[in-house]
Design goal:
There is one protein chain. The protein is mainly α. The chain has a domain at 70-283. It has helices spanning 2-7, 10-34, 39-58, 72-90, 95-108, 111-119, 125-130, 136-150, 156-183, 209-224, 228-246, 252-279, and strands spanning 291-297, 300-306.
Length: 307
């Protein structure tokens, strides 16, 4: 009897723990159950990223008089950027960055109102497609592919933009992941409310990693290429950020903060790299010409139109 009395209380406690855990995960599991297979979306998104960036970069022809490629500059940039990052983080923020922080604070007061309003759009399939552009697991390989491919082009701007996008993606996500751990904000699907902050509590809503990834990868291209197609990428990054709110993974202020981190890191790195390029005497502007080049690969056949 005494043994039974010791063992029996553990059974309902375990069952109660299982039921509690099931209730906590129910909203997320319900969202995942509604979510279609994303393999096709991932493939489509990577293809769209590659097409957009190739088109945007090739509308600007390679500059005449460029010096020979110097891939070693990328290693030097990594070292220099790593040394300068701590000082940049504690340096007096710019007016634009300060305005962004104020904006995040103001939006956070309306999260409880705006979040549910935007979540009414969650059944639109387009949101699930654009969401993939912020998936770091999908975008990191895409960024590496773009950078490696840029090394085969005789255009320093393409190479620099591709490298800056890859570096921005890595650095910005490191900052965002650190802030996630510190903030400990609950996600909307956890039903704890927009004001549930528990530092180092394990929750990871603030800031949005998807918004950070999308803006970190896309922003360098508008810094190097003044073309409408480059701005289309920013539109995609914005849609990616909004999708995280509609799908109940983030509050509006989460995605605004993530977008600000990704864009800020990208702008900072782009300006540093552009200054370094100008100091070495590499050309940064392009001439006017039109050229058609064939593109062939193991699973790709097409053509590239250069204006």
């Amino acid at each position: 009897m005494s043994i039974g009395s010791l063992v029996e209380p553990k059974i309902p406690n375990d069952n109660m723990a299982r039921r509690t855990r099931t209730q906590e995960l129910a909203p997320l599991q319900a969202g995942l159950a509604e979510r279609p297979e994303s393999v096709g979306s991932r493939v489509l998104c990577r293809a769209v990223v590659l097409v957009l960036i190739v088109c945007a970069t090739r509308f600007a022809a390679p500059a005449a008089g460029q010096s020979a490629d110097d891939p070693l500059r990328f290693g030097a940039w990594l070292v220099q950027d790593a040394r300068s990052l701590p000082a940049a983080l504690v340096r007096r923020p710019s007016t634009l960055f300060g305005a962004g922080l104020i904006g995040v604070g103001l939006v956070s007061y309306r999260d409880a109102e705006w979040g549910p309003s935007m979540q009414k759009w969650h059944r639109r399939e387009a949101w699930r497609v654009v969401e993939e552009f912020g998936d770091a697991n999908a975008m990191r390989p895409a960024a590496i592919m773009i950078f490696v491919g840029s090394l085969f082009q005789n255009d320093h701007r393409v190479q620099d933009a591709a490298f800056t996008g890859l570096e921005s993606l890595i650095l910005a996500n490191l900052l965002t992941n650190g802030l996630k751990a510190v903030a400990g904000r609950s996600r909307p699907w956890q039903e704890n409310g927009a004001d549930d902050w528990e530092p180092f509590g394990g929750n990871t809503s603030f800031p949005s990693g998807h918004a950070t990834t999308a803006f970190a990868l896309m922003t360098p291209w508008i810094m190097y290429f003044d073309h409408p197609l480059a701005w289309v990428s920013i539109g995609i990054a914005t849609a990616t950020s909004l999708s995280r709110v509609t799908l109940r993974y983030h509050w509006p202020s989460d995605v605004l903060a993530g977008a600000m981190i990704g864009a800020s890191v990208s702008i900072w790195l782009s300006r540093r790299h552009q200054r370094s390029t100008n100091q070495t005497g590499l050309a940064t502007r392009t001439g006017d010409r039109m050229q058609v080049d064939p593109i062939m690969g193991p699973s790709l056949v097409g053509m590239r139109l250069t204006f």
